[in-house]
């Protein structure tokens, strides 16, 4: 039986960009949007066009350059915002106007200083206006989870009647518990006329660390769009992490029998690109894409991994695009290995560009022995921006890169299933299948000259 398809709405470039230190310029947003396209995001929220000329331009250039995904622009529930969003989306093949208005009494009283009646009317009017411009309109009642349920139902019903095609239910302040959130989605499905004609969406913040759990609870209750961000960035504690949502569904189809169009092998490159652009590092123990996510340190764990990766790994590193730690880049590595790693990190180069990167890479590798992803990304950035070679500069100053004893990006990691299909995540439970039970791989804790040679071209 076909599994329900979940729309992945990526808000890295909008809500994500609102997190401290994560702002991006137009070129950076465009570059990341192209990566989100490769990743397979269904909807890319490219920005909030009224917020600044830069954001307007970013939405405009993303809308003009990507044809497959839906490109959304955010707007407050007023004519000026909606018009500006629509203007930025003019070049889009699949535009969406995303209108929002707070509905909780706390927001109405203290922030907007309007009555519920005024709120209802404003939401209805803004959606009606957006609909007169664009067929695809999303409405978000901000702070929905702290809104009086009867009033929330009234607003949602009104915006559906006015033409909204997606209704998003934000847990704006990350206050909800999973049971409450799923109950709210069920209640809306039961009480709101016309709700079966629109897509219900989740948008959960992580203030209590429950953004992913709440989003999944929402999906189980009938939501079919999930709003999320790479590395879980977003206002305050962030948004639901895209990679965690996608992999939870992929690793546990018994509990979450849903499909997404996300290409798992692009998760890690997307995460790395975001960290590189914003210079906000990923916490080492971050699920799915953190440096330690596939690292096995304890002797007992390493022993288990050697006997069978199923003992300690519930998915393969390859299934999320984490490069095999055994392919260490060192001074004997060749152009081919370098190009492959660059590609895994989301960068493809013309021959001449690769020559330059390779030239600098060799100088660096000679000095620090093992070139980590972070070094390589820095080097790529230097070449792209025409800077003097990092390796030359740091060779003299000796500061920018760590000493030769630097750890591997995935220290002591052992590939869970050598040769496995990159898109497969192996099952967590031993199924009794002879093939799976007998998986056994050689353990290489560190890089050897032999591997360098094999990977050199
Ligand atoms: O968290 C929130 O309520 C939002 C809305 C604008 C969707 O980001
Ligand atoms: Zn938000």
Structure commentary:
The chain has an eight-stranded parallel beta barrel, surrounded by seven helices. It starts with 6 loop residues before the first strand and ends with a helix. The protein has 457 residues and is of the alpha/beta class. The protein is built from 17 helices and eight strands. The C terminus is likely disordered. Strand 7, helix 8 and strand 8 form a beta-alpha-beta unit. The structure holds 3-methyl-2-oxobutanoic acid (KIV) and zinc ion (ZN). The site of zinc ion (ZN) has 7 residues, from loops.
Alpha carbon gap, first and last residue? 46 Å
Query: Count of DSSP helices?
Result: 17
Q: Give a short account of the largest sheet.
A: 8 strands, parallel, barrel
Structural class call reads alpha/beta
Helix-strand topology string: EHEHEHEHHEHEHEHEHHHHHHHHH
What is the topology, as strand order, of the major beta sheet? 1-2-3-4-5-6-7-8
Low-confidence stretches: 390-457
Fraction of residues in helix: 40-55%
* Percentage beta strand: 5-15%
Q: Which of globular, elongated, flat, extended, rod-shaped describes the shape?
A: globular
The hetero molecules present are: 3-methyl-2-oxobutanoic acid, zinc ion
The number of E-state strands comes to 8
């Amino acid at each position: 039986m076909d599994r329900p398809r979940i729309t992945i709405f990526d808000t890295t470039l909008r809500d994500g960009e609102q997190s401290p230190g994560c702002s991006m310029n137009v070129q950076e947003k465009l570059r990341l949007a192209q990566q989100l396209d490769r990743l397979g995001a269904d909807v890319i929220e490219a920005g909030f066009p009224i917020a600044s000329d830069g954001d307007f331009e970013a939405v405009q250039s993303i809308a003009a350059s990507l044809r497959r995904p839906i490109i959304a622009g955010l707007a407050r529930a007023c004519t000026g915002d909606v018009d500006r969003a629509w203007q930025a989306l003019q070049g889009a093949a699949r535009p969406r106007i995303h209108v929002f208005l707070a509905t909780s009494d706390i927001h109405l009283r203290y922030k907007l200083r309007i009555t519920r009646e005024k709120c209802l009317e404003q939401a209805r009017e803004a959606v009606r206006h957006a609909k007169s411009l664009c067929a695809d309109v999303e409405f978000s009642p901000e702070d929905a989870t702290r809104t009086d349920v009867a009033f929330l139902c009234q607003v949602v019903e009104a915006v559906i009647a006015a033409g909204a095609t997606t209704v998003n239910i934000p847990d704006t302040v990350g206050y909800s518990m999973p049971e409450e959130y799923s109950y709210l989605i069920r209640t809306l499905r039961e009480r709101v006329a016309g709700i079966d004609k629109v897509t219900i969406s989740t948008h959960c913040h992580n203030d209590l660390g429950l953004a992913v759990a709440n989003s999944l609870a929402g999906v189980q209750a009938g939501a079919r769009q999930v709003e999320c961000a790479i590395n879980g960035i977003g206002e305050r504690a962030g948004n639901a992490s895209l990679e965690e949502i996608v992999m939870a569904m992929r690793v546990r189809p018994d509990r979450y029998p849903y499909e997404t169009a996300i290409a798992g092998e692009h998760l890690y490159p997307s995460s790395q690109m975001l960290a590189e652009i914003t210079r906000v590092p990923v916490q080492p123990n971050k699920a799915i894409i953190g440096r330690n996510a596939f690292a096995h340190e304890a002797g007992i764990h390493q022993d288990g991994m050697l006997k069978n990766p199923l003992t300690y790994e519930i998915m393969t590193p390859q299934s999320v695009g984490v490069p095999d730690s055994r392919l260490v880049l060192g001074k004997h590595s060749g152009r081919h290995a370098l190009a492959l790693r660059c590609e895994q990190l989301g960068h493809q180069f013309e021959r001449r560009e690769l020559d330059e990167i390779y030239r600098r890479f060799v100088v660096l590798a000679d000095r620090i022995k093992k070139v980590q992803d972070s070094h390589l990304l820095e080097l790529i950035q230097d070449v792209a921006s025409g800077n003097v070679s990092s390796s030359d500069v740091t060779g003299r100053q000796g500061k920018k890169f760590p000493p030769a004893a630097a750890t591997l990006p995935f220290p002591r990691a052992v590939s869970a299933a050598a040769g496995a299909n990159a898109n497969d995540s192996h099952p967590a439970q031993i199924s009794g299948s002879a093939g799976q039970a007998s998986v056994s791989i050689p353990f290489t804790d560190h890089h050897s000259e032999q591997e360098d040679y094999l990977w050199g071209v």
